[in-house]
């Protein structure tokens, strides 16, 4: 990018420094951030339950942004985006399509997704199979996946435990409660604080509750035909995911022909964050192919 005096602006490759932006499409103002070298197919990040722009692990985002144009965004009704949170995952996928194609004008993207974001990404591809070139699904499962609907009870129980111990709920929801997991959880939460300026608005309790019910409905729905996903797909999780059971990552691997599966040992829902040193370069390499 060139400035008016003919000099080039430095490419931002640190998520902590990515400027906060917004774009209006379909009557909704979407909050987003972008970083990395512009041009080519962007990598759009689909975030997890209750998450805003501030919930992406900078170690993973930064690794991919070294060579790719990265875009993160708030779903409708979340963080600084306007409107209300939709009642279903399908609607969230429609809103994502509006943001990507109408708001930013992209007709081809790569997807990096985690947890609920992976559910939204699957629905997006089922409806718009030509939009996505490469797909990363982490900590997630297929529509109708066994025990996904139990996420409500698990989530509220872990929030209760975090309040008692004055901890961040993600330390319980994403990580094992052994010595290794506790250490990884605290390190992850600290990394999320690295951005100090222009942080996002937290999700409201009502929006959080609506998202939880949408995931529960997704878990109780009839399965989608994932044979339509012919894109190169990387699936990853920890071996002890209590939120979206790890067996569902293997289920996705079976349903998506030619997909790659990585299961990290002694880790939970946030296995990719606990093992970011191994996972980040693998994900960056996969998306760069």
Report, as a whole number of angstroms, the end-to-end distance.
24 Å
Compute the number of strand runs: 8
Per DSSP, what share of the residues sits in E-state strands of 2 or more residues?
A: 15-25%
CATH superfamily label: Alpha/Beta hydrolase fold, catalytic domain
Task: Report the C-alpha radius of gyration, rounded.
Answer: 18 Å
CATH top-level class? Alpha Beta
Q: Quick check: average pLDDT?
A: 95
Order of helices and strands: EEEHEHEHEHHHHEHEHH
CATH fold label: Rossmann fold
Which spans have pLDDT < 50 for at least 5 consecutive residues?
1-7
CATH arch. level architecture: 3-Layer(aba) Sandwich
Discrete helix count: 10
Protein name: Pimeloyl-ACP methyl ester carboxylesterase
GO molecular function, one term: catalytic activity
Organism: Krasilnikoviella flava
InterPro entries: AB_hydrolase, AB_hydrolase_1, AB_hydrolase_fold
What do these coordinates show?
Residues 43-274 form the AB hydrolase-1 domain. One of its GO terms (molecular function) is catalytic activity. InterPro entries: AB_hydrolase, AB_hydrolase_1, AB_hydrolase_fold. This protein is of the alpha/beta class and 289 residues long. It contains 10 helices and 8 strands. An 8-stranded mixed beta sheet has the order 1-2-4-3-5-6-7-8, with helices on both faces. Helix 2 (89-103) crosses helix 3.
Q: What are the main properties of this structure?
A:
single chain; 289 residues; alpha/beta; Rossmann fold; eight-stranded mixed sheet; 37% helix; globular; disordered N terminus; Pimeloyl-ACP methyl ester carboxylesterase; AB_hydrolase_1; AB_hydrolase_fold; catalytic activity
């Amino acid at each position: 990018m060139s400035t008016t005096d003919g000099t080039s602006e430095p490419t931002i490759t640190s998520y902590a420094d990515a400027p906060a932006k917004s774009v209006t499409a379909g009557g909704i103002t979407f909050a987003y951030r972008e970083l990395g070298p512009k041009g080519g197919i962007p990598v759009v990040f689909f975030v997890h339950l209750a998450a805003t722009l501030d919930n992406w692990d900078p170690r993973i985002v930064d690794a991919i942004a070294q060579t790719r144009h990265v875009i993160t965004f708030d779903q409708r009704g979340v963080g600084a985006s306007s409107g209300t949170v939709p009642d279903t995952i399908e609607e969230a996928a429609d809103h994502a399509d509006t943001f990507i194609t109408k708001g930013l004008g992209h007709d081809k993207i790569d997807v990096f997704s985690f947890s609920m974001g992976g559910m939204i990404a699957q629905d997006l591809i089922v409806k718009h199979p030509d939009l996505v070139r490469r797909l990363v699904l982490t900590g997630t499962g297929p529509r109708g996946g066994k025990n996904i609907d139990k996420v409500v009870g698990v989530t509220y129980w872990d929030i209760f435990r975090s309040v008692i111990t004055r901890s961040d709920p993600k330390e319980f929801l994403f990580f094992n409660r052994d010595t290794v997991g506790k250490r990884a959880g605290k390190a992850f939460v600290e990394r999320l604080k690295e951005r100090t300026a222009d942080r996002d608005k937290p999700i409201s309790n009502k929006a959080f509750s609506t998202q939880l019910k949408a995931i529960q409905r997704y878990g109780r729905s009839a399965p989608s035909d994932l044979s339509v996903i012919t894109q190169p797909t990387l699936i990853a999780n920890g071996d002890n995911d209590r939120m979206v059971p790890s067996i569902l990552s293997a289920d996705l691997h079976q349903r998506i022909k030619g997909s790659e599966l990585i299961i990290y040992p002694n880790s939970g829902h946030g296995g990719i964050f606990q093992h970011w040193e191994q996972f980040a370069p693998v994900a960056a390499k996969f998306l760069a192919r």
